[in-house]
Structures are given as structure tokens and as C-alpha cells.
Amino acid sequence: MSKLPIRVDFDSEVPIFVQVKNQIRLLVDNGALGAGTQLPTVRDLAVELEINANTVSRIYADLEREGYLARKRGVGTFAVDPHEKEIREVPGRAQLMETIRQLRSLGYSPRQILEMAGEILGEVEDGGR
Q: Which of 25, 36, 74, 117 is the residue whose CA sits 20 to 30 A from 127?
């Protein structure tokens, strides 16, 4: 089993969880992780990326629920053919959902989140950042 081409930017404002999850999702979507390819164990990937094993476990569980990975107890975690999944997750939806959950946990109301998203979208449309 080879190392995954995943890079973590510890200085980024994007949470490590989101960075790693999106990169694994992309590797499966573009075929770099073909169907049946075994991923590193939770512990191995955590050590390799220098992140918490609980974070990797949560990433694997989320990606399994979304249909990107399949876990076989006592055997390992494997990539799933993205074309075999009938209903494919809309790109970016999971990341947006995670961001909304984080904002809600910080106490933002749905209205505040929508207002903030509208402001940010306006900035992006205007070419700002």
C-alpha cells in the first residue's frame, strides 16, 4: 500500500479535517484511487500526515457514508468506483455542510449564516477575497 498524495496546510484557515477529506474525495473521483484500492489504516495515515487518528477515523466514516469508501472489518478501508454510486454527492456540498455545522456550533443562527454567505458571495463575485 503506497502513501496517499495528500498535503496538509497547517497554516490554512480551512480545517485539517476538510482539507484531507476533500483530497481523498478528489483522488477517488478522478480515479487516482481506483475501485478496490486499499487506503492506509487510520493510524498509518494519521502518523503520515501528522494529525490526530480520531480525525482520520471521522474522515473515513464520513466518506464511507457518502459512498467514496467501503470499510471491511478486520481487512481495511477501500476506495469505491465513483461510477457505481447511483446518487453522487454534489461537489462542495459536504464541505459546505461541514462549514455550516461548525458555524452553528459557534452559535450562529441560520439567518446569520445566510447573511454571511451572501456577503462573501458578493465579495467573490466582485473579484475580492
A: 25
Q: Is the pTM of this model over 0.70?
A: no
Nearest to 66, CA basis, from 100, 105, 92, 104: 92
Which residue, 41, 17, 2, 22, is CA-closest to 93?
22
Residue 113 in contact with residue 103, Cβ under 8 Å? Answer: yes
For 26-94, the DSSP string reads HHHHTTSS-TTPBPPPHHHHHHHHTS-HHHHHHHHHHHHHTTSEEEETTTEEEE--TTT-SSPPPTTHH
* Domain range annotation of the chain: 1-86, 90-129
Q: For 30-85, what is each residue's pLDDT tens digit? A: 889 999 999 999 999 999 999 999 999 999 999 998 889 999 989 999 999 866 65
